[in-house]
Amino acid sequence: SFWKQIQAECLLVWGKKSLQMKEWFPVEKQIEERISYFPAGTKKAVLDCGHMIHLEKPKELAQLISDFNK
Q: Which candidate in 49, 60, 61, 62 could, as Cys together with 15 as Cys, close a disulfide (CB 3.0–4.6 Å)?
């Protein structure tokens, strides 16, 4: 998996409503698995948002990215 090759700090952002898909796609398991690949991984959830965070909550996403890069 290419995820294991990334050595940089990583911000993993997901929409909490994406968890509603868990019946057919284990979102929580995917998040935990992917963040475990990064030695300096950070995970953040966006409330009242589905999978398309950049379209549904662009200001919140931008703020999370800005805060992460400080």
A: 49
CA distance 43 to 34: 10
Q: What is the pLDDT of residue 28?
A: 75
The residues pairing with 11 across neighbouring beta strands, listed in sequence order, are 42
Residue 50 φ then ψ, to 5°: -95, -145
- pTM attached to this predicted model: 0.74
3-class SS string, 34-61:
HHCCCCCEEEEEECCCCCCHHHHCHHHH
CA distance 40 to 66: 17
